[in-house]
Amino acid sequence: MTDHQESTLRQAAGIIESEIDLEAIERAAHTMLVAFGEDPNREGLARTPGRIARMYEELLAGYRTDPIELVNDAVFQVAYDEIVIVRDIEFHSLCEHHLLPFIGRAHVAYIPRESVIGLSKIPRIVDMFAHRLQVQERLTTQIADYINELLHPQGVAVVMEALHLCSMIRGVKKHDARMTTSAMLGTFRNNMATRMEFLDNISRSAEPLHF
Ligand SMILES: [Zn+2]
Known about the structure:
Shape: globular
Oligomer: single chain
Bound molecules: zinc ion
Strand content: 15-25%
Strand order of the largest sheet: 5-2-3-6-7
Number of strands: 7
Largest sheet: 5 strands, mixed
Number of helices: 9
C-alpha cells in the first residue's frame, strides 16, 4: 500500500489519535449516580463507575482501531468480477442520541475490479465503525465508503437492519423498533439487475431480529 493510499484510508476511517480518558468517564459516572439521588458508596454501586469506564472503552474501541493494520495482508489481486456477498454479520452499536445500544445484522456486497479482501475482514470493518457513537444511517454509509476507498470496486452495497433499544424502552415504546438502512455505490446504484440480485439474496434472511 502506498503512503497516499494509507493516508486516504486513515481519513476514511476517521480515527481518533488521543487515548480514551477512563478516569474522566469514571468521575462522570460517579457524578451521575449522585445526580440520580443514589448513594455511590453503597456496596452495589461502589465499583460501578469503574465498570462503566471499562465498558465504554470496549464499546467505543472502533475509534482507535488501526484501519491499515485491520486489513493488512488481506487485500489480494484477483481476476474475479462477480458479486461477493457477506450476509448476516451480527453487529452492535451505540446510538449517539441516548448512548443506548442498537443491535442487528449487516449485509455487505461488492463487485471487484482488481482487488478482493479476505472475507473475515468484512465483519471487522463493520465493527470498526459500529463500535463508536453512531446513527445507523451514517454507520451504513461509512462502511460502504471505506470499502470503496480500500478496494476501488465496481460497486459496493451495504444494508443494515437493527433494533433500537432507545425506541423500544422509552417514550412511545414501539416494540418493533426495527430500522433498515442501505448505501449503494457504483454498479449497485446504477444497475437495477445487480441491485436486485443482492436484495433478493439477502431477503432470504435467517431468523427475525430480537434482543
Ligand atoms: Zn437513541
